[in-house]
Amino acid sequence: MSRASSSAAHRVPDGPVLSVRDLIVDFGAAEPAVNGVSLDLWQGRILGVAGQSGSGKSMTALTSLGLAPPGAHITGSIRFRDQELVGVGQRTLSRVRGSGMTMIFQETNAALNPVIQVRKQLTLAVRANRDCNQDEAHELVVDALRDVRLDDTDRVLNSYPHELSGGMAQRVMIAMALVCGADVIFADEPTTALDVTVQREVMEIIRRVADEHRLAVMLISHDIGVLEEISDELAVMYRGRVVERGSTDDVIRAPEHPYTRALLDSIPRIGHELTEFVEMPSFDMDLTSLPAAERIAEGSHS
Ligand SMILES: Nc1ncnc2c1ncn2[C@@H]1O[C@H](COP(=O)(O)OP(=O)(O)OP(=O)(O)O)[C@@H](O)[C@H]1O
């Protein structure tokens, strides 16, 4: 897969579909879980978010979706299209979640109902989010399954989730996002549980649906090597902050932040193959002593 060839360089985005500014998610611990994060998601582009466990990747995504856990004190701004989401009620958040933004998790078991056939789950998802009859819903579902290269649609539709392989279940989750008509997908470690070959296939599908459906994707991974293959931009998080962000090529070729360098040094490199996850070495630094290394000036895409 060539990230360069599939990148959105030829496209002129209208503006970010999701804009996060100065987001703080505080549970009253010594440091906020998310500590002043600013990010943009653009149609047709994949933002890879890397960082070690506990750096705030998932909390940034969950909060953007209005799913921060109880007890979180949230400040800053999350704008989805023209709608500010910080401070709005659950009703608005669940409307936006239903049709505008969705999340794909590592654990498909948590998202797919084990006792309902895939056909029914996908059809219900369509009908909850789109005004269409049963036949139209079926057509949308079949198209979405083909989009994620599940061409044996009857077999998949007649399956229960436990009858699918991990890679197939992850593709069904991506199809679910497509049939809901989502503009933004948060994919949180979607391939960590899969073997390397299947991981690559699922990543290629994420890249393709982002391109073809102009989806904005935030792809979260411990493994910057996986993100390197697929992302247009990279953001590196450390202790609740984005310590570096920029085009993937810039960040990989010339990382400016010591933490990014440590992340890159921690992955085995065999050519530029996708690598299996390798735990980050222990790393601690005083962030206040370091310059911010943000290389995407705000609005540089417009
Ligand atoms: N419900 C909660 N209450 C208090 N703190 C929480 C809660 N959930 C998460 N945190 C804290 O928020 C911080 C960020 O966690 P988060 O899950 O976003 O990290 P992460 O980078 O996604 O890590 P991982 O890769 O392990 O999922 C952590 O310090 C975590 O302990």
Automatic annotation (TrEMBL):
Protein name: ABC-type dipeptide/oligopeptide/nickel transport system ATPase component
Pfam families per the UniProt record, alphabetical: ABC_tran, oligo_HPY
A GO-annotated cellular component: plasma membrane
Biological source species: Nocardioides albus
KW Nucleotide-binding (keyword) present: yes
Family statement drawn from the similarity comment of this UniProt entry: Belongs to the ABC transporter superfamily.
PANTHER family given in the database record: ATPASE AAA-TYPE CORE DOMAIN-CONTAINING PROTEIN, OLIGOPEPTIDE TRANSPORT ATP-BINDING PROTEIN APPD
Chief location of this protein within or outside the cell: membrane
MF GO annotations: ATP binding; ATP hydrolysis activity
